[in-house]
């Protein structure tokens, strides 16, 4: 008999594989990876949304309407997969399914996804510089998932495969504050 953890891993794998197959048909693998990441962050960041989606007293039609409204414009294959996940009471596997999808998508595309966060959108020259540097460093193609965060003072944050380079002005100021607080 499978443990609950093993059962959840198996479910997450099925969701990720089914979603990847559907995204491949629509030649939409990378865009779905970006949207799946945003969807997961949105759900994880909203207690109210999570409570509603797991509440057995909320009708499935109402949950579908909420999902469709909040994630309007997202790939239909992602929304359909997410709706099935919610309908079956599998919301707990969402983060793991997202991670697995990203891994499978990277393999399918032969590229690593690098998250890049800046205060303003990247220009083409910086985008190409990042791609070139990380392609050489990682030994494979690189696809950037660009994020704009107006809370950054400036600089850049890069992350991939659990590694993070924080060259933002905010983090540099925090490091300086930390060093100065230990000095005095």
Compact description:
With 184 residues, the protein is α+β, with helices and mostly antiparallel strands. The chain folds into two domains: 4-106, Peroxidase, domain 1 (Orthogonal Bundle), CATH 1.10.520; 110-183, no CATH class. It has helices at 4-25, 29-44, 47-54, 60-70, 76-87, 94-109, 124-138, 169-183, and strands spanning 111-118, 141-148, 155-160, 163-168.
Folded structure, characterized:
- This protein has helices at residues 4-25, 29-44, 47-54, 60-70, 76-87, 94-109, 124-138, 169-183, and strands spanning 111-118, 141-148, 155-160, 163-168.
- It has 184 residues and is α+β, with helices and mostly antiparallel strands.
- The protein folds into 2 domains: 4-106, Peroxidase, domain 1; 110-183, no CATH class.
- The chain has a 4-stranded mixed β-sheet, sandwiched between helices.
- Strand 1, helix 7 (124-138) and strand 2 (141-148) form a beta-alpha-beta unit.
- The longest helix is centred in the N-terminal third of the chain and has 22 residues, at 4-25.
- The protein is globular, with a radius of gyration of 19 Å.
- It starts with a helix and ends with a helix.
Name the overall outline. Answer: globular
- Tell me the radius of gyration: 19 Å
Strand element count:
4
Total helices: the number is 8
Named at the architecture level, the CATH assignment of the largest domain is Orthogonal Bundle
Averaging pLDDT over every residue, what do you get?
90
Give the secondary structure arrangement, pairings included.
Layout lengths: L3 H22 L3 H16 L2 H8 L5 H11 L5 H12 L6 H16 L1 E8 L5 H15 L2 E8 L6 E6 L2 E6 H15 L1
Parallel strand pairs: 1-2
Antiparallel strand pairs: 1-3, 3-4
Helix pairs in contact: 1-5, 1-6, 2-6, 4-5
């Amino acid at each position: 008999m499978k443990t609950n953890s093993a059962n959840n891993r198996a479910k997450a794998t099925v969701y990720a594989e089914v979603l990847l197959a559907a995204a491949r048909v629509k030649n939409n693998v990378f865009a779905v990876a970006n949207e799946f990441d945003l969807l997961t962050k949105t759900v994880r960041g909203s207690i109210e949304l999570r409570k509603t989606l797991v509440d057995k007293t909320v009708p499935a039609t109402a949950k579908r309407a909420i999902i469709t409204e909040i994630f309007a414009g997202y790939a239909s294959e992602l929304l359909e997969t997410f709706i099935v996940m919610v309908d079956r009471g599998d919301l707990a596997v969402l983060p793991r399914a997202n991670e697995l999808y990203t891994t499978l998508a990277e393999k399918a595309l032969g590229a690593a996804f690098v998250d890049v966060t800046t205060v303003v959108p990247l220009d083409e020259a910086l985008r190409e510089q990042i791609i070139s540097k990380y392609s050489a460093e990682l030994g494979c193609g690189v696809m950037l998932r660009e994020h704009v965060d107006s809370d950054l003072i400036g600089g850049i944050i890069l992350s991939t495969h659990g590694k993070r380079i924080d060259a933002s002005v905010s983090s540099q100021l925090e490091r300086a504050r930390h060093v100065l607080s230990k000095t005095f």
